[in-house]
What we know:
Elements: H1 2-25, H2 44-56, H3 70-83, H4 85-90, E1 92-96, E2 99-104, E3 114-119, H5 129-132, E4 146-148, H6 156-171, E5 180-185, H7 196-205, E6 210-222, E7 232-239, E8 241-250, E9 254-255, H8 264-277, H9 286-295, H10 301-307, H11 310-321, H12 325-331, E10 334-341, E11 348-349, E12 352-361, H13 367-378, E13 383-392, H14 403-416, E14 420-426, H15 432-435, E15 439-451, E16 464-466, H16 467-486
Parallel strand pairs: 3-5, 3-6, 6-15, 7-14
Antiparallel strand pairs: 1-2, 2-5, 4-16, 6-7, 8-12, 8-13, 9-11, 10-12
Amino acid sequence: MKDKIYKYSIAALVFLISFILLRAIFHQPNIEQIRTYNSIILDEVKSIENLSKSIEFKTISHPDYTKFDYKEFQRFLDWLEDEYFLIFEELESKYLGKSLLLKWEGVNNNLNPILLTGHYDVVPVGLNANQTWKENPFHGKVDDEYIWGRGALDDKSGVIAILEAISYLLKNNFSPERTIYFSFGHDEEIGGERGAAKITEYFINENIRLEWTLDEGSFLLENIIPGINKPVAMINVAEKGGLTLKVIGKSLGGHSSMPASKSSVGYLANALVKLEENPMPGKLDGVSLELFNEVSRHMTFKNKVLFANLWLFEPLINSYLSKSPSMNAVLRTTTALTMLSASDRANVLSNEAIGIVNFRLHPRDNVGDVIDHVTKFIDSENIEIHQVGNAKLASNISSWTDKGYLAISDSVKEIYHDVIVVPGLMVGGSDSKHYAKVAKNSYRFNPFLISSNEISGIHGTNERIKKVDFLNGIKTYIRIIENGSDQ
């Protein structure tokens, strides 16, 4: 009897291992036929010069609209009209505040229009930028490899690349099948309430329903996703929401010479440690499942074994991915401890200590889920929890099998060739939160290659983009317009 059990156990083990390995063997990339297109020949020097020039305008957003330097914004818009005069002659233009909306009338009015959008406002640089940046952030320096300056990645490169693409197509007598709108916001960095929101109101009032939109978002990521040695074009099909909570520790105040056994700061510290050590549950499902199902097909066989058998290895994979901040943000609602305050004197015990915790909501979670989670792990009568401001739920998830996504995906593959295209989740915010109100699908993607040593320039120091990557981005926008207007 023991021998039979042993034999059956060995047979079962062999079957299990064979099953696992067989699934990994068949976990291979799909073979696709990339479409051909007419060669795109750009005036590369002029395109690079225009991005460089755009960076010189200090179109800096400020949370207080009264502190905007609107003269600088207008100078930028005036320059656009001069530099891209053909566009303003051929397309309808409309200003909503300092945001620009262009309309390229299509041949077939029975097709819903599409929208390509970007923003030309930028975040500030530090007061010591001239000492910390390698190049002046508002000079638009061009060297042998890079175009430098604030907006080179976020998002003047997108705006100028779209305008260069339109100019190229106009000069080559292209006529779109469906109507295409182009919008360029002036306040995206502070929420887009007077830019994208007003353009969306215009669409609503004019009863304009968009088939799909393409906004800024992720890039072609190079050497950023572990285990992948080729660029990954992550087309974000959703963006996370946001919730901020105020966590208050309460205790008796008094003089520091006679402290109680537990202070408000102590209660708060314990609570915050619990939140940080017990994040919201994360898992591979929906967008993240599709993302890793595709990229894992390009990994080593060892990793294919894991991803091809999620039914067995998902806990191990989740644990590994959670160690990477960027991958962790895709898996779950993130918890970020951002601000602290208590006594303003070294010898005074405050009766309240306050911590601010920012959560970026995954599409699977809502406000109630987060508050229940926080309450469960803190569970103290010496802690109060209050919501700060209005929460924003994650966006709806757009289709990654619909024509808009496929037009973007096909265009990226046509220009970059050996690239992995996957749906992704945007962990920040964009103007898409406004345009989604009038769009069937909303996508967020910049068609520029970016490496791990360049991505830190976004909102940071030494923001820059490679000249060759900027030019390839223009070509990709050209194909997106051509493919998108036909589908």
